[in-house]
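WARN  no MSA supplied for this record, continuing single-sequence
INFO  ligand: 4'-deoxy-4'-aminopyridoxal-5'-phosphate
INFO  echoing inputs
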Amino acid sequence: MREWESNIRKVTPYVPGEQPKRADVIKLNTNENPYPPSPKVAEVLRQIGTEPMRKYPDPEARMLVEAIAHEEGVSPAQVFVGVGSDDVLAMIFLTFFNSQKPVFFPDITYSFYDVWADMLRIPYEQQPLNEAFEIVARDYDKENGGVIFPNPNAPTGSLLGLDVIEDILNRNQDVIVVVDEAYIDFGGKTCTGLLARYENLIVVKTFSKSRSLAGMRIGYAIASEELIRYLNDVKYSFNSYTMNQTAILLGTAAAEDHAYFEETRAKIIATRENAKTELKKLGFSFADSQANFLFATHERIPAAELFAVLKEQGIYVRYFNKPRIDNYLRITIGTDEEMERLYEFLREYVVTRE
Ligand code: PMP
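INFO  complex generated
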């Protein structure tokens, strides 16, 4: 081996869901919102032109931070923004998971956590979900270097109640506990109300799902002013201008349009509840998802086969070829029309395949 090769930081990267080149597909594979962003976002986009591109952006993204703080009912000093919650989470791993003890997260969860831990040489231990794919609070009672989990969990969609989150916090008062609420707006209750009592809690959210802005890359963390200062110190030691000015302006418009946010998330929740009924009729079972996706397994037909035949039809869903979940499909909730196309195809396929 060449000498320098031993010094390379070799990593196995995260593999994002496919973004098909064809425009005519029904895209139910990366948990995007099927509805466009708020009309206020479109209006601001028309007004701003290219001017925000010429100058460096506001490194503090003050406007956006203030709009988020207002929406969340916290002080702007409690908000940290980044390029999608992936950026925010990576900064959190870098800043707070700096112990010799292992960081704990579930065995079935957002598959970026182990990638960041590996890249940053952070030891970790995955705690198995139970048979019903639920997080078990007492598994998080051992000595650790920090705790992170999504709520609702991904890709299962299972939601923990605030009592269980508080139980996990009580068992972990000496480490940072991160609750990744990427999907909380689709039926869960945010745990930001616990911030006043738990100074070690960080709540992470995103504009990618419930605000229809996955392509703009906007995410944020809410925590105590002290933890946000530590995060900013690391950010400014890495790259002062993580967020571009267009994202700051459009994200602010999205954050301010509370009525549109309520309207679109209610539509997705209604479509999801209907999807539970339709997919059950077709022989699928799943945990009772409170996210904008269902994690479903079929009573007879292997998930890998369904994934392939759906793709042939131009219906993209997500399949993870991993232990415990290789017979499941993660199906993002689309519009009613998109979901109807999915049921139509499945009705025919499930019957004729016998
Ligand atoms: N957390 C979870 C649980 C997710 O599923 C995702 C979406 N892939 C993210 C965070 C990151 O989303 P984004 O970077 O678009 O905010």
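Residues 84-86, 110, 150, 154, 180, 182, 206, 208, 214, 219 surround 4'-deoxy-4'-aminopyridoxal-5'-phosphate (CB under 6 Å).
INFO  checksum written, moving to next record
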